[in-house]
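Task card 7
Instruction: Convert sequence to structure tokens.
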Amino acid sequence: MAQLQLTFDDIINVPVASATSVSDWNTFFDLPTYGTSFTGVTVSGNTVNLDGGGNINIKADLFQTNLHLNSIYDEGVIMQLGNSAFANSALITVTLNSIIQISGNNCFFNTTNLMGVNCPSLTGITGQYVFLNSNLINTTNMSFPALAYAGYACFKQTDFVTVSLPSLVEIGDTCFAYCSAIEFYLPNLTTTTGTACFQQLPNLTSIVLPSLTNLVDEGFTDCIVLSSITAPNLTTIGDYAFFGCTGLTSINIQSCTNLGTTVGDNFVFDTINGNTITLTVPTALMTADSGSPDGDIAYLQANNTVTINAIDSNALNLVFDSIANANTLVGDASDYTDWNTFFDLPTYGTAFSAVTISGNTVQLFGGSDIKVKPALMYNYPSYNTSLISVNDSVGSITSVGGDAFSFCTGLRTVDLPACTIVYGTQDSPELYYGGFGECINLVSLNIPLLEQVGDSAFSDCASLIGISFPLVFSGGESSFVRCSSLISVNLPSLTTAGPFCFQECTSLTTFDLPSLTIVGNDCFYDCTSLTTINIPSCTDLGGTVADNGVFASITGNIITLTVPSALMVCNSGNPDGDIQYLQANNTVTIVEVGAVTPTPTPSATPPAATPSSTPAVTTTPTPTQTPTTTSTPTNTPTNTPTPTNTPTPSQTPYPMSGVGVNVQYQYTIEMLGSFSGGTAPEGAIAPHPIIMGDGNIPYAQLNAIKLGGVDGLNN
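Output:
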């Protein structure tokens, strides 16, 4: 039975005549008018425990100006908040486990004592001024993992330090205006629908918005200490967007097609004077105004010292800190033959046929089907700081070799729209990292068609805050190890994660990996912030049923773990050893899902990993070795929304011949992309089972394996 817990500064200060009278509480909440009535009440110290209620709407003004209510913990009773429900109250902590939308206005207005808010199922805040002028000092105590929309003035004038909202997609007018935050982690923010969303943030010095496509008028007006903005996918920018941002020195809007409402001066950069600025924009904006630069760019150039890095949509664009360093790297940066030699073309793809230099940007034309050769930059350590951006607008790069960009510590943005493979350590003669290892300042990564991630491919990319690879089905050993700033991971198709794959991703709170079947040893080792782990398709947790260090060093957390029922009895009737470790060292709620037995036919698509018809079963949490007083909700929200914009590609079984029915295809992820009909190397993983179709015909379920015609693959 769900329970509502209310904690007061003193039990004598409850807002009813008798704290132990259930009828008094029903009258106070106006039940059943606003929901199902409570059926029981108990009092423990200063805490009132109300049982039996449900679908309750906290009516308008109910706790407004209440200076005695300190905490509210709802296991699944409250579904909506009315206007000013807790405004001007003395609330310190709030947990609302089942609320999905907040439509009331001013719900937590001026709650200046508020230190912690946890709404794991909340997806939208449509009310106005909901947290206006609240005291949410640090969002490590503000958990909205599913929040996708925040409306008008939602967090305006809050005392934030860090804003971390990994699922946020859209915000309304003045959503974060006047708040005191110094850091924003909004990896999935796509659009702003109202003006002045980030207006006058006095402490913000730098911001990266990797997914933002639309910024309306006055977006960052008067952010006077803002020096750097990186928004590589921003296409539309409203008037006055950076008006008064007098500290700007670096602006990356490389995809922008509409800078203000006209090609004239729309005051986008007005009042920015006397600065030395690096501006990265598309080539088209430099001729948008009758052959001259867009009027807003012209203003910036007339009043500042501006280096223009122009990005051509028909070229591979390489942005350097200085064109002189590009010359030193290849010989003559203006000679395309020197670039062909550097990339080892045509050995690794179709050669370039032309080159243009624009500011510090090298634009390479004519290349195609290029594998960036292994250790491309590794042999030039003194110049690894000079490469700032790789923007392959034309789609010439299809794969990235091991160590190709490793140790490129100056690299900040990567856009590879045609790349399908980032190779691992074994692909490099240096055997050090995969394609982007140790790119410690990489903040924006767009590789939408990526399917395979090799060993150490993104190891130590410590500045990445989000990754979204909807087609990736295979991750190698240590692929994302020590990506310590990651707060958002979108890998809906991932079926195999190698050993140490996500080791020391210390900022991640949620792993939602619905297709993951094989988990390597130490995969989530030292992911110390985890609270939600969703692996409903997993059949192999660590390689054996013993403790394989999958969750090592995760202790003292309150965790919801979703796994197949089979993993709870696989160890001689006991849970898998890795689950036992998690239970022994944390407070764990287990959500079990039934086993999946696919029965495909040659023309049918196999069922999803977790069928909707399989009910979830919640078991009692195992107490942690460290005492805790938290309660386990009887309903089991997933806490993290299933991505809707990047659907998992369908998998179609293909007929095979000459393959035993009861064996699995053997191939290794030690060298992603390699394939052999011979004996698999030791440690090979076979994620594609041979299954029987109609007429006893064997089939292998393959996830986008490429055979022939690609480097590293044999027919």
